[in-house]
Specification:
single chain, mainly alpha
Length: 169
Amino acid sequence: MHGSIRDGLEGLLAGKQTGLAEQELRQHLSSCEGCEQQLAAMQAQSEMLQLLRYPEELDPAPGFYARVLQRIEERARVSIWAAFIQSAFGRRLMYASVSVTLILGTYVVAEEALDGHLRNTMVSTQDTHRDIPVVGTEAQQRDAVLANFESHPVPGLHAQPISYEGTVQ
């Protein structure tokens, strides 16, 4: 089939080709047996597809949606929590749990107040300072490390002088 003709065949089948374009297509089809056979095959396919089309729109039967919703509700699983929420026992259990929680919470707050943990006291923080950077030669690095150790005293640890008397040097 010729490329220029192939583009116009769908329009010809749909009845959208008019005037000079339709006349040229029909003239070519009368002189070209291959294109004419292709057009006949396309028309046969189009007719078969038209037979498959349902003549009118289908609407669901009356009550269809109501029946679907009813089946969904019937098949819905009952939640385990429904036993607690919807039964009298469940409501009593819930109220008892809330009561126990409130009583225990009150007890904890009262005990903390007695211990002094709930007072509005300021907590002082330890003074912070910057350590000497450890850079430079090996001797400078050693001095910086010793100075940093000296600025962070360990409580309860007191340095005692060491006597070098009587040692061999």
